[in-house]
Amino acid sequence: MTDASTTRSAGNVYFSRRVAPQLALGFASGLPLALTGGTLQAWATVSNVSLQSIGFLTLVGTAYTLKFLWSPLIDRYAPPWLGRRRGWMLLMQLLLALAIMGMGLLSPGSALPELAMLAVVVAVLSATQDIAFDAYSTDVLHSEERGAGAAVKVLGYRIAMIVSGGLALVLADSWLGWRHTYVLMGALMLVCMAATLWAPEPDAPAAAPGNLGQALVEPFREFFGRRGAIGLLMLIVLYKLGDAFAGALSTTFLIRAAGYTATQVGTVNKVLGLAATIVGALAGGSIMARWGLYRSLMAFGLLQAVSNLGYWLISVSPSHLWLMAAGVGVENLCGGLGTAAFVGLLMALCRHEYSATQFALLSALSAVGRIYLAGPLTPTLVDHMGWPGFFLFTVVISVPGLLMLYAYRARIAALEKM
């Protein structure tokens, strides 16, 4: 392929018949999250529900962290329509639409237990849709489309969180009321079903495991039977570790240590940070189509590491809004680039027969650094190093992941040919 044709291919990858539907499908994936999280908590708050009861509502989202437990069922079984993955997606979207509308028929002030149980149902259905959607993306996208597909998924997901989060609060408070807002959100989920019907099947759909026992065991046996499997798992944990540490308490740092107001931080994070993440992800997908998986992972990983120096600069400089905006913007831009490549890596590591289970497990593993390392350890590191030293250390934390990536460069390059 010539350089000119490669450039055209990279530019047109977002219009691929396989990539374009990922936008609406990503929207369907992100829509329920706020409706069972922040938006539901806001509804309970204005309904004068006790703080203790609102605290228990945070447990509704547990299904998202445990979805790997039933992912083998999605690999083994499928509804008798639209194929292995789209059949599950369509069914979940229909049930989600009905359940979200059902939430609008209840009220936290008079029927909190029933509303909470229905929210749990929505979370389980949403997590199941995510399992099927991630597996579908893994199965349908060609190797050169994985970065673009990941970027479009992120864009759709973020738009949905804005709609079901900030926009839903405005609609509920000033226009429609809470009940009608939830009914509207359910109707939007019904619209997303059209994207599932339009989305194509994979070129060569893989056969399902022969029985449930195979679906439970073979994904692990197949993955750990690969040469260097443990190293690949370490790479998944380490690749975005520096990014995770830098972002763990970034809001607290900007308000408490750097001296910015909550309004300033919120505006920059919500507007500029979100826009930079989306731009980074979309640019990353286009670049990946031209550079390939390994080169993109290495380049974006280096940029992720270096971008943490923006927080270091903020920590040693007088407070200037433009400096904070630049630091947050660059960090989110580079984080978006890295996310596109990283999700492309997770897709490439999955075998189509077991993509639901393997992607669910790998994505859960990718959260280990953020949840179990960065969150608990960051306060201790800041106490010992101070904020400037800590942000310099986050650059150092990024190095092992890049070294691991270099060590596995041949293995990762081979994934692009599969």
Tell me about this structure:
- The protein has 21 helices and no strands.
- It is mainly α and 418 residues long.
- Helix 2 (22-35) crosses helix 9 (146-175), helix 17 runs antiparallel to helix 18 (321-349) and helix 17 crosses helix 20 (368-407).
- It is globular.
- The relative contact order is 0.14.
Low-confidence stretches: 1-8
Largest sheet: none
**Helix-and-strand structural type:** mainly alpha
Relative helix content:
over 70%
Radius of gyration: 22 Å
How many β-strand stretches?
0
The whole-number mean of residue pLDDT values reads: 89
**End-to-end gap:** 18 Å
Order of helices and strands: HHHHHHHHHHHHHHHHHHHHH
What fraction strand? under 5%
**Inertia-based shape:** globular
Count of helix runs: 21
Write the layout of secondary structure elements.
Layout: H1 3-12, H2 22-35, H3 38-46, H4 51-57, H5 62-66, H6 71-76, H7 83-104, H8 108-140, H9 146-175, H10 177-198, H11 212-224, H12 229-238, H13 241-248, H14 250-257, H15 262-291, H16 293-307, H17 309-315, H18 321-349, H19 355-366, H20 368-407, H21 409-415
Helix pairs in contact: 1-15, 2-8, 2-9, 2-10, 7-8, 7-10, 8-19, 9-10, 9-15, 9-18, 12-20, 13-20, 15-16, 15-18, 16-18, 16-20, 17-18, 17-20
